[in-house]
């Protein structure tokens, strides 16, 4: 028989063993649960959205990373970041980004600076081209002695003729501007260049008085010199001097003053030329005598044209008056009537004669007589036929006289 104490002891041991077994099973179950792998969370990569470039909070600094479409580029920080719009907005509030952004606002972009510099150079070059064109147009007006009023229409015409020219479109050279360019720019430059040439070379001076009807008397001073650049003799206006009277002493003083103002040595002047008036060619008190005092070796030449005119005038006295009257009558009969001019033109065509007008003899320029005679000889066949038909048609005494 088993005692009660033994039974109780055995029951206690069995219960303890059962409890330990159950605890081991729980631990094993826990270990099995921990040993199972956890399920990973899925992450989605954000790609760059072109709409961000129009977002007012991002457009100033964000750009697409060309190497990776899942990243965006910060122009301020000059770095590439991964993430979506939320990450971009978060980056925009970063203190380093804010500091760099504020610094960039006060710094001129190099690309913009270069671009603005290029545009500025282009505008300057265009403006210089326009000014050069206006200078050349003004020089053309001065060279050909055209009225300033031409410039009221010429720039507009050039814009129509050359619609694709930016220079023509920008030109605004009117009458007043042309006058200012010539008077204040071209004339002083040309005068300075002429003075510098005459300071270094020998030259002659030609003088002549004004022939207009104004109250103010003027004397034109022209310099004649050899130009190495053009390789020919050139005549240039040195000045238009106002003189109170045509006395030799006054004219001599004005010429000396003009040379002194332009710093031109009087020793460089080796010759003078003017007309044959006594005030100029007088051997005692004339301008020639005064010039010889300063330079005894200076060459003084009278007007060759006037001298030849006097020779021609004296020689023409030996020609019978009938020839002089003939050339005058022919001109007066035809050229004073538009109807006769038209009729004479028909006879020029019939006789195959050149369609030239008849010339008039100048009363004070006897040298013009040669050109008048040569023109009549050229038109001789047409004149004979014309006056013959004119006499037959109307029995004109003038036509009969010319025909005979």
Automatic annotation (TrEMBL):
Family matches, as SUPFAM superfamilies: Ribonuclease H-like
Region span, Disordered: 1-42
Question: Which InterPro entries would you find in this protein's record?
Answer: RNaseH-like_sf
Q: Where is the composition biased (Acidic residues)?
A: 15-27
Compositional bias ranges of the Low complexity kind: 1-14
Give start-end positions of Basic residues composition bias: 33-42
Q: State the name under which the record lists this protein.
A: Uncharacterized protein
